[in-house]
Amino acid sequence: xxxxxxxxxxxxxxxxxxxxxxxxxxxxxxxxxxxxxxxxxxxxxxxxxxxxxxxxxxxxxxxxxxxxxxxxxxxxxxxxxxxxxxxxxxxxxxxxxxxxxxxxxxxxxxxxxxxxxxxxxxxxxxxxxxxxxxxxxxxxxxxxxxxxxxxxxxxxxxxxxxxxxxxxxxxxxxxxxxxxxxxxxxxxxxxxxxxxxxxxxxxxxxxxxxxxxxxxxxxxxxxxxxxxxxxxxxxxxxxxxxxxxxxxxxxxxxxxxxxxxxxxxxxxxxxxxxxxxxxxxxxxxxxxxx
Amino acid sequence: xxxxxxxxxxxxxxxxxxxxxxxxxxxxxxxxxxxxxxxxxxxxxxxxxxxxxxxxxxxxxxxxxxxxxxxxxxxxxxxxxxxxxxxxxxxxxxxxxxxxxxxxxxxxxxxxxxxxxxxxxxxxxxxxxxxxxxxxxxxxxxxxxxxxxxxxxxxxxxxxxxxxxxxxxxxxxxxxxxxxxxxxxxxxxxxxxxxxxxxxxxxxxxxxxxxxxxxxxxxxxxxxxxxxxxxxxxxxxxxxxxxxxxxxxxxxxxxxxxxxxxxxxxxxxxxxxxxxxxxxxxxxxxxxxxxxxxxxxxxxxxxxxxxxxxxxxxxxxxxxxxxxxxxxxxxxxxxxxxxxxxxxxxxxxxxxxxxxxxxxxxxxxxxxxxxxxxxxxxxxxxxxxxxxxxxxxxxxxxxxxxxxxxxxxxxxxxxxxxxxxxxxxxxxxxxxxxxxxxxxxxxxxxxxxxxxxxxxxxxxxxxxxxxxxxxxxxxxxxxxxxxxxxxxxxxxxxxxxxxxxxxxxxxxxxxxxxxxxxxxxxxxxxxxxxxxxxxxxxxxxxxxxxxxxxx
Lengths: 290, 551
Prior knowledge:
Chain A is mostly helical and 290 residues long. Chain A is 72% helix and 0% strand. In chain B, the strands form four sheets. Chain B has a six-stranded mixed beta sheet with strand order 6-7-8-3-9-10, with helices on both faces.
């Protein structure tokens, strides 16, 4: 596809991103929040004021204060430090899960959409089977069967998300299979695989970007949910889901901050990803340029 | 009856306000038919939407008056407009299939309109709907009442749309490109029907079209629009004969019609001498007993039923027929995108029909047979800019890269008249004519011997069509290419081709030199095709101009 020889230039891409962000303040806000989340994931562990695992029974269950912004939990650990440090794990799980489901779903969907026939029929039945399960229960089952580890949470989350990508790509590829530009690409000497990969598939990217952003939110919720019910990440590892689960016991006794702050961060992350969808689509769609 | 005065319609866009209609005025009296003619972007459709007050979001009438039987349509409340739409003024649109609800029986759709406007009760709705279908000459209307739109042909769908539009006996019918996309013989049938119905009911009509011949043939008065303004108007009998405005004259010149040479479509000042064109003797393409059968749901469907023809080197052959005649299937087989069921395609001495289409992409002869696609928009990848589109065959088959590639693409852009600074643009940033040039530049990038042109100008305005046809004539001479020009329009094919093949139902019914086929068609189908084409107006040239053209 577009190669360095083409005079289109990366500067046009940058200008387009700036334009999209400036045109839509909500998108700009979501990108700023996303930057903050990524930054917490990257440098969070080095800048937090306390060791997220260090217990201090003398200062257990303290309300938020200047020393402990989000208070401390039942073991005297600093909730703020734990919330920030947990970002890396939660983001890793969701990004890895979404990346896996994106790649597998895109490949399966593209093949089914382009060649159709029995491949298409077979894939659709498999996807139907996956979708027929309540997805969270399916993820629980996968983690329970494969064993309790971060990798398995990633695989479980990826598997339940594959059908969404495969369906979007299949539909987008299918409507372009006979398009003039696909035929023209074949006249230019491209094999079917090249036509699909370099000419048709990139056109499916804009709707996929919306799917990615929604999915990132779901993936984080899913990972936190699994941890919440005791599958997946184990204490004392800082992770939003476990922290909410642990803090839930203390809400009745008035120690609301232990569950509230990780829950708030979880919500913020999901909110950010959901808002980013439209902006991402506009960035990858050349038709939005003027 | 209808009076429009200084109408201005504006749209709010990302780059500020744009005026699509800039102060037009016209009157329409009862029983009169007004034709509004113009090219795309002239504001002709927007005018009709403004009359019906169905402008898109962002569009509004910013000045002027619309008066309908004394009622002010610009300021009428939405409730009042709803009563007028369909009952007093109704409209038919370009794509009849899109205008019908695909999952509702056509009879029910007519009933909906009748009930909505209180023209029928629950009990007599069905009878009235069948009556309406009979009025538009749909045979066996009682049975067709239960048909769904997908079961009907395009022409039949347009009849149903007309039945819906006329169901409430409106006083004014607005037809926006009513036959664009229909076959030429269907177009004639539909337009004759419309004319008959409106005159029988004493209705007025506004016919909006890009086709001068159609407008002149079916309306009493004409208005020519350009850039949101009416540049000229008058009685259709005399307007074209004595066109004053340069734009009107340009449009008339650009319309293909019998008896003119390809250069005469261009404005007088742009006419360069036509390049010499003399086909060689050697046979470049020999098609023998070509057949194609598709597996349909209700048994095999034979799209091409054994056709044979030769194309000599440097010759331009036209393949003409209406939709479904097998011409697209034939061209797809010749360009080796589709495998024939039987027959041979001998290209430059060897049979290429046996090479599977999937493997032909890597055949050394791939670059020698290329194609210009029908819809320039559809045939350009929305994610590739013009440079990448033209460079693709050069990279893949020509093995070019870097500076050499850049030079060649610039050369091709120059050859096809595409300004160099447009190469970085994406298809949606280019006009129809510019996209057509990109498509042609891509097709000729590898210096093919044989070029298939699949209705390359069907989606273009006549003035741009004239330019593109002339460009193709120039390129043929410069690059010594052989053309197969596929089209539904004999008048266009004749301009470029030495030889014509007329196809119907998968068979070639007539073949011969273009001039002979046009003047003295042998087959009744060819005669029907020629008769159905609207007669474009002939411009009476001022004495001085004739001399100039002769020089």
